[in-house]
Amino acid sequence: MRNKIRFIHRGRIRELDTVDPTRTVLNFLRYDDALAGTKEGCAEGDCGACTVVLGERVGNHVRYQAVNACIQFLPMLDGKELITVEDLKGEDGSLHPAQQALVEQNATQCGFCTPGFVMSLFAEMHNTAPATRRDIDTVLAGNLCRCTGYGPIIDAARQIAATRPTDKFTERMIETASLLEHLEGDKTLALEWQGRRYFAPGTPEELAQLLADYPDATILAGATDVGLWVTKQHRVLDTIIYIGRIAALRTLREQDGTLEIGAGVTYSDAWQMLEQTYGDFGELVRRIASTQIRNSGTIGGNIANGSPIGDTPPSLIALGATLTLRSQKGTRQIALEDFFIDYGKQDRQPGEFVEKITLPLPREGDLFRNYKISKRFDQDISAVCGAFNLQLDGTRVADIRICFGGMAGTPLRAKLAEQALIGKDWSADNLASALQALAQDYTPMTDMRASADYRMTVAQNLLRKFFIETTQPETQTRLVGEGRLAHA
């Protein structure tokens, strides 16, 4: 094992050893390095004022992604390149093209949010520059501005997309990739600070051993939830085991008629594959959160934390997902719907971790849809999230799986509604019976997001919407978003 964090900043390797394992990157930058360009707005990954960019080696190139520094822990920088707004200026002090575009378009007022916008535009400039208005909106959804109407900022993004400028990071990418390769190693990172521990293993076997040794450890993936435990709930986490260095958990592949998603696969990495394979699922991923959160958060983490309003489990359950759990004792597979036992309780034994999610590839004629209802269209937590997977034999329902999040203490299938439809015609009369049965499937709660009556009405209306979309495809049912209406 090694006991030093190693990352690249400003073209050189930095090493840190005596650090608080849950010190955020934001606080490290502002209070340790006196780099105050990265701002704290919300401390929960919502406003984007703290946006920084991380670089990871992909072959001889570097992939740059925007993340929220306020909920990223400092040891998570290990093996990566860190870029802040102060790092963008030229050697002569000249503005970076992303900064220059904002100046030329008069896209800043008080300036507090500007560094975050700059970093989001910088990251996207180094990937696929946004072109359409919807692309730009998606890229910037995680950056909030309290002064402007966003118009000038969008114009700046369009200017960058049109000119496709290069910068010093492009010019030295090969050199940076070489430095990042130098940081790679198979030794587990092991830190200790005031009796607290942080581990970052490199293989599933090492992870299993660590969990056997520390069964009460907090497993850390993207920190999009765990980060809030520290910044908002002020929890003290005695032992953390980070899975982000385990390449085997970041695999995404089709195999033997299934799609396998490693527990460490981020939303961003899974997005395109899910959209190509399951249509509507891609739009759900787009709406799950901001670009910064999608770049960090993982589907495995969304499952493992067991939230009843997690967005991906309803769709995964409707698609028939199975879960592979692993420990030193071996592996076991369970249906994903069986993993959720009760509110806050999952079928994960001491020492076990989620290794992968397996989805059957679509059958010919499958009709799959998912819908998310939230107060804000983008970057908000669901009040209700519904998923439907229908297999027709002519006009008869051969099979249907209906699952909702936000309607119970766990993501839960509507089995009575399913039984009211299977073996019968996919018709308005039989739909009416299923809607009545749906009211027996759930006893929804009232909370700050919605009342119980609202949730039940919405769930029934989403089933109606699914019926309309699969029987009257010419009817417009979606005013916004990019969900695919056909899947066959």
TrEMBL record:
Q: Which residues form the 2Fe-2S ferredoxin-type domain?
A: 3-88
An example of a Pfam family matching this protein is: Fer2_2
Keywords, comma-separated and alphabetical:
FAD, Flavoprotein, Iron, Metal-binding, Oxidoreductase
Keyword field contains Lyase: no
Entry keyword annotation includes Heme: no
CDD domains named in the record: fer2
FAD-binding PCMH-type domain: from which residue to which, for each copy? 191-364
Q: What is this protein called?
A: Xanthine dehydrogenase small subunit
